[in-house]
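Our consortium's second objective concerns turning raw sequence data into structural hypotheses that experimental partners can test. To show how far this objective has progressed, the report includes one record in full. It was chosen at random from the queue rather than selected for favorable results. The single chain below, 348 residues long, was entered without modification.
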Amino acid sequence: MAAYLRRRLAWLLPSFLGITLVVFLAVHLAPGDPALRESFDPDAGSADAADIERFRAEHLLDRPLAVQYLHFLGPFDLSPRGHRWFGGSGEHAFGGLLALDLGSEIHRPHVRIVDELGRRLAVTAPLTLAAALLAWGIAIPLGAWSAVRRGQKRERALALGLFALHSLPGFWLALLLVLAFGAAGLGWLPVLGLHSAGAEDLGWFEWLLDLLLHSILPVLALALGSLAYLTRQVRASMLEVLAQEYVITARSKGLSERVVIGRHALRNALLPAITLAALILPALVGGSVIVETIFGLPGMGRYAYEALLERDYAVIQAVTALSALVTLLALLAADVLYALADPRIRHG
């Protein structure tokens, strides 16, 4: 186990750097130019060449891609005000990902990316965590029930309903919830933002209630989007466990069906869920672009979407790097927990 853990940790850094390099190249090779977006004057109808060149030099857009990537990676700042070793003024010698300094947004220099990531993550993480808990809380009993009732009419009806739910695109499902429960439908729930206008003047209880009401539809949209897949995974794992000899032996001993299912079958059927649960962590960081955009939530997904529209390379790279790191750590933790939970697993 220790040797396996060392090997995985040894591959962690190269994998992370490889992901950041691929994302960096994809972003910089995509159409669009942040310098033109920054310098374009709608009234004049053209861009000032001097401003464009000054903007490019300030953000190293006129330098080779290798230099730009090393500047993003760090730990040395390669900009004109960076480390003296690389021709800078020395005002800001160190920076970049390895220095834990993600810099500022390109089009809003006064906004630190780290601060904005923290603010956006405070919106995305609770909503996604609540959606994950809701999805798993429904998927586990549904999956177990459908496995035990395999072949029955009610189980087939449930499978058809889950298949229909799984086939719905995420944006369509969110829009259906808006039309059904928003002002255009039943009018039961708010559909935009996290708070109503003037919520800052409310007492703490009314403020919290307003937040909960605004969170219901986004959480439902996120949970329903993964419910069908999780239910099918639990069902498949449960069917495999029910065919094992120890389950048959438990039934032959005269144990009640409730004990056989709950104590012997379900507990072992949920072992593969450890890996699926680990994939929740990247979602907590990355957020959902579709849901956050439709419901007007200032989360990580919408932050990445806005950065793509603005061609803000620094923000795009920061969000993807954070998501990649959390994904790698989550997968590593899932493998370790799976090995600890199932003594049959041995890593050579």
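The partners drew two points from this record. Residues 2-86 form one domain. The chain has two domains: 2-86, 113-341. Both points have been shared with the crystallography group to help prioritize constructs.
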